[in-house]
Amino acid sequence: MAMDLTGFVPRRKEIVIGTKVFKFSELSIGDLATFEAEMKQQKEAANEKRRQRLLSYDVEIDAVELLKLIDQPITDEELEAQMETVAGMGTLAYLSLRKAYPEISRDDAANIVTMESLGEITAFLFPEKDDSKKKPKITKKQ
């Protein structure tokens, strides 16, 4: 039997951007899975272009070596790096905003987020990455 999630609302934060208040919702595992699937699709498309370009060269290429070079799955490090790009943040903002604004488009979400608001949005979406809460490391001189 499926759990009834009627009335469930994820944690939200209202962030003032320009002259409007926007409700950002925390990201769920499902949101991150959606992001990961999109990044995999983009990587596969890029791999296919590389594969076709390499095959178009007039040289003999070992198929196994080609697969080793091209068909690598997306790594956690690549996924995390993609989250920190402008496009990645736009996608994550869209995934967050669509819970409060189901009609929002990706372009709308990308146009809402400003460089000024990016820090506050990032701190909310990724609280464990909020560097302002970290204490500086003190190292002893030897």
Features:
mainly alpha; disordered C terminus; 2 strands; two-stranded antiparallel sheet; 142 residues
- Uncertain parts: 132-142
Alpha-carbon Rg, integer: 20 Å
Can you count the helices? 6
Q: Judging from the principal axes of the Cα atoms, what is the shape?
A: elongated
Helical fraction equals 40-55%
Oligomer: single chain
Beta percentage is: 5-15%
Describe the largest sheet: 2 strands, antiparallel
What is the residue-averaged pLDDT? 83
Give a quick summary of the entry.
By secondary structure, the protein is mostly helical. The protein has a domain at 31-126.
Question: What does the model show?
Answer:
This protein has 142 residues and is mainly alpha-helical. It has a domain at 31-126. The protein is 52% helix and 8% strand. The protein has a two-stranded antiparallel sheet. A hairpin with a 2-residue loop joins strand 1 (12-17) and strand 2. Helix 4 (86-97) crosses helix 5 and helix 4 (86-97) crosses helix 6 (115-125). Mean pLDDT is 83; it is low at 132-142.
